[in-house]
């Protein structure tokens, strides 16, 4: 086989769009390398460009887990505080005695809060603007999606700034701005749902959302919410007119500082009460509609190819919806509660404190919307180039389909980074005139547009002023910015290229081979010669010639070893007995001997897993066996180690990999775990062990399936490290997902997803999805063909209908051989889903997945206590 089989993802983990996607306006070369090149015959999914242009990188796309948590959880905490403030003010208004002087002081406080909110909004708006202008100067290219997200943040910023600016103007202005903000956000979320109107079937598979339709279609979709908003505005206007008429007909009483406002009567008319009630109900309807729309958008996106709509510069709608849901749900809740306590209830109250308070704005609502606008602007503004490390997340998303293609895949990954950095430098230093020629926007069809905005015409004074303000707003002049970037750990090109060349790459072929060994570890036969899984087939996967088993009867810990003169495979069994279950529940920490510190912390691990590894010198027995194999080998090269395990076995695999690395420092070690608990997956305890293990075995991958709950426990006191790979039965594959990507992929739990059979189906889903146009990775079909040529997928995954012909046929679904043997499903017709094969683009495995959810696939404990292993159909 020639060359590499690389599946390259886009920035921050999103595979690049199909080569058939609309053009981005930049000159491209073909995806296939030139004949005779080291990459000949490779199938790449990248946009290979002779003159690549740097992309805009939004802060949302590179936010770390800590940054994302701070932003989202601070919004929740602040809005809880704002609701508390509204309740406190409500309590103050209903005291037995409230003097006018006290109210005056309270209103002065509100004025200060309004001024602070307005100042923060203006500062953020200016920061956003100059970040936008900076991206222009650097020659960065905006995608249509990023443009949409930026306008969402900018639109909310404008509306909320208008609200804050007139917060004391009372009457209709604040209500209009507030309701317009809510309408705006609801409309922007509604744009994220699938278009189901005329022309839906003719839309490009990557542009199937309402936002991708012409504005006329979008306006038609907004008619209901727009009508409701007009009702709200009408009620607000009616209330204002009634109040003005009431003031005109009322004799104003002189109020001094000693006047007790609670002794005065300011009753509302029935019409005023009705107008207020209607306004509140409409706001409630807006809030409920926003929740329903966001849920529908998420559900619609489950039917779309996550690789094209995930977190990336070109396709970010998945994360956009999740960010909006995280930020705006608590905001809308706080707004509704604040309006209830600060506007609705005071309208029904006859005291003048409440009546006056309802006219001067809602301080809690003002602060809630201000926080929302600022957070949205920060998340969706372009990131500064000075703080862009060359080693962006996008270069860590690549994976190889086959082991033979890994070297070329790594080299192609490194070259992409060099090309990207070169393009950024060239764009930043390009003459202003060259950038001016990119106007008007480069729109190549109605769905794909890369707007490149024209530079402003300005004289030297204005240009100097803009530069000064830019530096002021970022707090960092040019030289200081680069210095701070170094302090923040941003790498230069040379160090980033060196690190990237040493970064491991995930290999699908390796995962499949080790998966078979994971299933083998659950067998209890002395000769490991089960009908459907046997040790001879396992050894052939790695060209091994011998095998052995190491047991600890007390904890029922078990590992299967296979070896040759050059390599060793270790497969640890997961939970399969009561003793194993007792190991799992010992979720406290223990010091891992020998006592040592890493980065100032004592190395500790999950007590149950650590004890299982150390009990009765089990670890020494394993290492002694490995030393024996090493001494008996004929070759001069260090042994190559492959370590794997499922569930508890994954935890033990991580512990073992650390010790094997110390015992064999010159050996290359690869560790793939499947559904391993959080305490053992990659961190097995605390941060000290995480760092130690990742340094010792960087080629460690934790594979998580769909709603598998086990990898997320225990929750407290244990860290996760290493490189996560998320798969699911919809054919989605996400490598090293970000915090926001994880929140999209990990929605709910399903214990059946923890079974090894569920993992097999998810891998099969990825392979079958490559032959579905709306879900395929670019170059994915060719990658699967190469993988199938290197490996018998059906026998390795223990599934039926895994040949290329069956994978290409949407009516033929992969199914466990065990299910076939139990139900005597001998024809492909009986394996068709309820849509006659038409569901495969949305849920590739209908009944096959349902069979595992009924408990018919696994490799764990059966009711009789035995281990179940679906069989395999031998293909010679």
TrEMBL record:
Residues 30-48 have a biased composition (Low complexity). Residues 1-48, 854-876 are annotated as: Disordered. Keywords: Membrane, Transmembrane, Transmembrane helix. One of its GO terms (biological process) is lipid metabolic process. Gene3D superfamilies: alpha/beta hydrolase. It comes from the Eukaryota. Residues 569-715 form the Fungal lipase-type domain. Residues 854-866 have a biased composition (Acidic residues). The chain crosses the membrane at residues 70-92, 112-132, 153-186, 221-242, 273-292, 327-348, 360-381. PANTHER family: ALPHA/BETA-HYDROLASES SUPERFAMILY PROTEIN, FUNGAL LIPASE-LIKE DOMAIN-CONTAINING PROTEIN. This is Fungal lipase-type domain-containing protein. It comes from Chlorella variabilis (Green alga).
């Amino acid at each position: 086989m020639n060359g590499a089989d690389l599946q390259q993802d886009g920035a921050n983990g999103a595979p690049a769009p199909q080569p058939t996607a609309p053009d981005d306006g930049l000159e491209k070369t073909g995806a296939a390398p030139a004949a005779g090149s080291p990459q000949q015959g490779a199938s790449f999914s990248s946009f290979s460009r002779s003159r690549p242009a740097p992309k805009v990188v939004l802060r949302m796309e590179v936010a770390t887990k800590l940054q994302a948590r701070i932003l989202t959880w601070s919004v929740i905490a602040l809005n809880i505080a704002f609701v508390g403030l509204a309740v406190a003010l409500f309590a103050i208004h209903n005291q037995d005695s409230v003097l006018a002087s006290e109210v005056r002081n309270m209103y002065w406080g509100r004025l200060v809060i309004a001024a602070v909110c307005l100042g923060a909004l203006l500062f953020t708006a200016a920061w956003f603007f100059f970040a936008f202008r900076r991206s222009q100067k650097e020659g960065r290219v905006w995608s249509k999606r990023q443009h949409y997200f930026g306008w969402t943040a900018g639109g909310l910023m404008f509306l909320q700034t208008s609200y804050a600016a007139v917060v004391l103007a009372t009457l209709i202005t604040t209500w209009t701005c507030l309701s317009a903000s809510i309408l705006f956000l609801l409309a922007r979320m509604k744009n994220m749902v699938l278009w189901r109107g005329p022309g839906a079937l003719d839309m490009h598979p990557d542009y199937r959302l309402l936002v991708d339709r012409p504005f006329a279609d979008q306006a038609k979709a907004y008619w209901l919410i727009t009508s409701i908003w007009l009702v709200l505005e009408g009620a607000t206007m009616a209330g204002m007119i009634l109040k003005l008429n009431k003031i005109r007909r009322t004799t104003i009483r002189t109020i001094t500082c000693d006047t007790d406002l609670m002794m005065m009567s300011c009753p509302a008319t029935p019409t005023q009460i009705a107008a207020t009630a209607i306004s509140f109900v409409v706001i409630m309807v807006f809030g409920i509609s926003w929740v329903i729309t966001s849920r529908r958008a998420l559900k619609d996106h489950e039917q779309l190819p996550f690789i094209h709509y995930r977190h990336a510069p070109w396709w970010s709608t998945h994360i956009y919806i999740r960010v909006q849901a995280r930020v705006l749900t608590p905001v809308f809740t706080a707004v509704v509660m604040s309006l209830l306590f600060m506007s609705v209830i005071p309208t029904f109250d006859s005291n003048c404190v409440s009546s006056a308070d309802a006219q001067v704005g809602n301080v809690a609502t003002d602060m809630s919307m201000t926080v929302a606008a600022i957070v949205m602007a920060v998340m969706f503004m372009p990131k500064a180039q000075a703080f862009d490390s060359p080693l962006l997340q996008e270069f860590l998303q690549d994976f190889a389909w086959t082991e033979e293609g890994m070297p070329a895949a790594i080299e192609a990954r490194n070259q992409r980074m060099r090309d990207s950095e070169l393009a950024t430098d060239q764009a930043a230093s390009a003459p202003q005139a060259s950038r001016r020629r990119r106007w008007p926007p480069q729109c190549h069809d109605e769905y794909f547009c890369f707007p490149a905005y024209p530079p402003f015409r300005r004289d030297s004074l204005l240009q100097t002023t803009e530069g000064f303000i830019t530096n002021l707003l970022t707090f960092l002049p040019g030289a200081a910015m680069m210095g701070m970037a170094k302090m923040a750990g941003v790498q230069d090109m040379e160090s980033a290229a060196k690190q990237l060349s040493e970064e491991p790459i995930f290999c699908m072929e390796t995962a499949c081979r080790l998966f078979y060994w994971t299933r083998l570890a659950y067998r209890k036969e002395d000769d490991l010669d089960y009908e459907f899984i046997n040790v001879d087939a396992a050894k052939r996967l790695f060209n091994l010639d011998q095998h052995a088993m190491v047991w600890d009867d007390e904890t029922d810990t078990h590992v299967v070893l296979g070896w040759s003169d050059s390599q060793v495979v270790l497969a640890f069994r997961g939970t399969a007995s009561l003793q194993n279950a007792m190991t799992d529940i010992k979720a406290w920490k223990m010091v891992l001997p020998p006592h040592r510190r890493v980065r100032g912390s004592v190395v500790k691990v999950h007590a149950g897993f650590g004890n299982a590894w150390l009990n009765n010198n089990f670890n020494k027995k394993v290492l002694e066996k490995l030393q024996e194999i090493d001494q008996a080998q004929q070759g001069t090269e260090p042994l190559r180690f492959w370590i794997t395990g499922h569930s508890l076995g994954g935890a033990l695999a991580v512990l073992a990999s650390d010790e094997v690395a110390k015992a064999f420092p010159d050996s290359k070690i690869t560790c793939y775990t499947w559904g391993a608990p959080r305490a053992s997956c990659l961190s097995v305890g605390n941060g000290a062990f995480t760092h130690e293990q990742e340094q010792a075995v960087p080629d460690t991958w934790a594979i998580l399936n769909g709603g598998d709950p086990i990898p997320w426990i225990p929750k407290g006191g244990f860290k996760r490290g290493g490189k996560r790979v998320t798969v699911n039965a919809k054919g989605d594959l996400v490598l090293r997902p970000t915090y926001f990507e994880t929140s999209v992929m990990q929605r709910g739990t399903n214990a059946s997803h923890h079974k090894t059979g569920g993992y097999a189906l998810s891998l099969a889903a990825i392979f079958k999805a490559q032959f579905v146009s709306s879900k395929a990775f670019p170059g994915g079909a060719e990658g699967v063909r190469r993988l199938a040529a290197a490996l018998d997928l059906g026998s390795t995954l223990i599934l039926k209908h895994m040949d290329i012909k069956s994978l290409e046929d949407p009516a033929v679904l992969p199914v466990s051989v065990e299910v076939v043997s139990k139900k005597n499903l001998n024809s492909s017709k009986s394996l068709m889903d309820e849509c006659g094969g038409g569901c495969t683009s949305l849920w590739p495995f209908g009944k096959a997945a349902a069979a595992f959810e009924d408990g018919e696939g696994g490799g764990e404990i059966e009711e009789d206590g035995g281990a179940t292993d679906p069989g395999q159909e031998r293909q010679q």
